[in-house]
Amino acid sequence: MIQSLSRRGNCWDNSPVERFFRSLKTEWVSEIGYRTYEEAKYHITEYIIGYYSQFRPHTHNDGLAPRVVEQQYWNAQKTVAKMI
């Protein structure tokens, strides 16, 4: 992520990160927590790479999972390439 250097008092800069952490806490992190740092690191990495970045629907993608949107993009590129 890129640090925002906008003017003071602009509350919208941090909202995507806050939304991500809310999703992480409510969808993935166990209520009892983790016993070790390594256990937390492993499970949170699984959430980010294995679920959030591939399968979890995102409002930015009209409710579709990133994996589906990427597949649609590549299918559209193949169609354009055939037309040329």
UniProtKB/TrEMBL annotation:
Pfam families: rve_3 (PF13683). One of its GO terms (biological process) is DNA integration. Residues 4-66 form the Integrase catalytic domain. SUPFAM superfamilies: Ribonuclease H-like. This is Integrase catalytic domain-containing protein. It comes from Candidatus Thiodiazotropha endolucinida. The lineage of its organism: Bacteria, Pseudomonadati, Pseudomonadota, Gammaproteobacteria, Chromatiales.
